[in-house]
Input
Amino acid sequence: MAEHDPRGERLDELRRKFGREPLPPGADQKELTPREAQPRFRGLESGHRACQGCGEALAARLVTECAGPDVMIANATGCLEVFTTAWPQSSWRVPWMHSLFENAGAIASGMEAAMKAKGKNTKVLAFGGDGGTYDIGFQALSGMLERYHNVLYVCYDNEAYMNTGIQRSSSTPHAATTTTSPAGKERMGKRHLKKDLLAIVAAHHIPYAAAASVAYPADLQRKVRYAMGIEGPTFLVIHSPCPLGWRHDSALTIEVARRGVECGLFPLVEIERGAVTNVMPIRKVRPVTDYLELQGRFSHLMTPDDARAEEERAHLQALADHNIQTFGLRGDTPDAGDTQASSSVGRGGHPAGRV
Ligand SMILES: Cc1ncc(C[n+]2csc(CCOP(=O)(O)OP(=O)(O)O)c2C)c(N)n1
Ligand code: SF4
Output
């Protein structure tokens, strides 16, 4: 590539910034792999120990890719922490701190206060699973939000305590089977509703709280970038399938996540200072059975001629319908070129526009 080529200079600048050698003089862009030709920050390296098809690993990579490199992370224990930091190795390329199950929010608050005292702009992120966020770290999270720390908290929601053997959490959906809510003669899996954490978080009057899914990476990264630009507490919950705990083929992670959104069970909404300002419309609403049928954790709901299974399916369908109704998810756009989940989706509803 000629030295005066501005694309080459930009590429060299990016490579230097992310700790890579500048291209040798005369190198041609054709020689680059697609990833090299579009250099991005990799906050989470490959080579970690996540299961094949782990939604959480993918989600964390997507988040750090567009949040980094000037970030620090406080990570609650859980799969994400365990599969990335088997001593003495680490997959993280940013400053990263282990926290207890219960206090990622408190650790992140301290990190942010320290950065402030040092006069640095490094953004602090806090990561936790649903067990560490919906349940055990909830108190520290609430305190962090209420004290208005400048932290982006990301909850990787795989809907159970996966790292310790698939125990139910308050995020586990109704009727899913887990090791502590087993489906059997007595019960059809979990008997309680998934906690609406987004609404609870939004009730802290924070500037921004949103739901995202690994099935929609452009949308997910747009939300991360938007949150990163906000001074104050922000929150993102990411629907992250777990092939082990959800008992689906590891090649189907994205398909499962997509169906979760398309049936209405996991609505992708954005809430600013308590008001819903944006939703991802569903172009073609699927029945919840399309989502359930791919996952072993719901297999007890799919037996034919079983009145109990039918009742549970109807119940889950009613929950999805309720979301679709409440958030107005049934999408309809006048833009014929619109594709669901692309960054260019004409979402409307928010006067300030989007990044
Ligand atoms: C106070 C406390 N209770 C229990 C544990 C054991 N423990 C470690 S990770 C984990 C499950 C984590 O679940 P979640 O936060 O949903 O993350 P996932 O592994 O599903 O990603 C549990 C119960 C602990 N470390 N500390
Ligand atoms: S158990 Fe689930 S969340 Fe944990 S690494 Fe495996 S796929 Fe990921």
Q: What stands out?
A: Confidence is low (pLDDT under 50) at residues 334-355. The chain has one domain: 44-327. Residues 56, 77-80, 101-102, 128-132, 136, 156, 158, 161-164, 169 surround thiamine diphosphate (ligand 1) (CB under 6 Å). The radius of gyration is 21 Å.
